[in-house]
Amino acid sequence: MPAALGCRLAATAHAAVDYPAADVSAMDGYAVRGAELPGEFGVAFTASAGHPPGSLPAGAAVRIFTGASLPAGADTVVIQETAEPRPDGRVRLPVAAVGANVRRRGEVFARGAAVATAGELLTPARLALLAAAGVAEVTVTPRPRLALLVTGDELAPPGHPLAAGQLYDSNGPMLGALAAEAHLEVEAAHRVGDEAAALRQALAELASRCDLLVTSGGVSEGERDLLPSLLAELGAELAFHKVAMQPAKPLLVARLHGTWVVGLPGNPVSALVGWRLFARPLAEALAGDRHAFAEHPLPATLVAPLASPAKRLLFRPARLEWTGVRWEVEVIPWQGSHDLVAAASANALARLERGQGAAAGEVIAAYPLPWPEWNTGTPDLDG
């Protein structure tokens, strides 16, 4: 079942047992009939976890350890710290509330109860819950098979000599790492130049092997931006092309013979923003998350003023920090959507609505990135 980690349940799982499976002791101490307290008791026997509980004789106590089933007739555990053992082997026990330090059978869940419902994410704790419930196998929605396609004549693999006019491919390594962070298995990753036949062949081949194809480059309006026209030639259904946002305006989403295609711009910060806001949520939706696109950005106080272009939603690399009383966000100075130094220094994206300006001290929306590096003492983030 550990292989299901990070997947979502496709069917509700029900408990095969009660949990706890019996009335058990929550502490080391002495099991007694609560109505007989306080008093001095002979110790009939010792009860340990994993062994038959036996029966409690009238007027006696049983030495018991955490997790052991209560002997028949016992209803209360007096913790050992308050017990007074006698030299003759008897023990003096103070008064305690009836039922103290006892975990009741089925108090966490009863046999037949739904312990995990369809659509829930299988986290380590939820896998532990299923194991405790006696569930050995689960049915999950598989994580989508992912393929990556990086385009551009100008790109060279890192570590190779650069020819005139070339630069190293940073989107390929970044998208591969983002996929790994999202628990997505990359079925194939290709790099092709701006040549129509090679790009058409790569699109057709990769789409046939995956559920989600993420590309970078070639999605704008230049003569070498071939992706939109080639997808149309291959019979893709366009969902949308271009978003009124900065960066990542040229972003494209289409469906090619049952495979979703997300076309990210080639500039690396644009590709990062497009992945965070479109590609990853789509992958999570394909994996069974019904709320994948329900963003819940953090309200954060802006450290310095920020302006937005009149016609576009603005996203900027930023540093998000918890001060102890509030979130604060500082936009990182950048040279544009190619500035990987700014992206590498960020742990969030700061958002401004179209045409809005925000002064220092105003509250705006901040979207955490997958590598938050939160400071010690930061509150937990939900989802």
Structure write-up:
- By secondary structure, the protein is an alpha/beta fold.
- Helices cover 16% and strands 30% of the residues.
- It contains six helices and 28 strands.
- Mean pLDDT is 93; it is low at 374-383.
What best-fitting shape do the alpha-carbon axes yield? elongated
Uncertain segments are 374-383
Strand order of the largest sheet: 7-4-6-5-9-8
Individual helix count:
6
Calculate the terminal CA-CA distance, rounded to whole Å. Answer: 22 Å
Q: Quick check: average pLDDT?
A: 93
Strand-helix topology:
Blueprint: E1 8-9, E2 13-14, E3 24-25, E4 29-32, E5 39-47, E6 60-64, E7 76-79, E8 84-85, E9 91-93, E10 102-103, E11 114-116, H1 124-132, E12 140-141, E13 146-151, E14 155-156, E15 167-168, H2 171-181, E16 186-192, H3 196-207, E17 212-216, H4 227-233, E18 237-241, E19 245-246, E20 252-256, E21 259-264, H5 268-286, E22 298-302, E23 306-307, E24 313-322, E25 327-331, H6 340-344, E26 348-352, E27 357-358, E28 363-368
Parallel strand pairs: 5-6, 13-16, 13-17, 14-15, 17-21, 19-24, 22-25
Antiparallel strand pairs: 1-12, 2-11, 3-10, 4-6, 4-7, 5-9, 8-9, 18-20, 20-21, 22-28, 23-27, 24-25, 24-26, 26-28
Entry summary:
With 383 residues, the chain is α/β, with parallel strands linked by helices. It has helices at 124-132, 171-181, 196-207, 227-233, 268-286, 340-344; strands at residues 8-9, 13-14, 24-25, 29-32, 39-47, 60-64, 76-79, 84-85, 91-93, 102-103, 114-116, 140-141, 146-151, 155-156, 167-168, 186-192, 212-216, 237-241, 245-246, 252-256, 259-264, 298-302, 306-307, 313-322, 327-331, 348-352, 357-358, 363-368. It is elongated, with a radius of gyration of 30 Å.
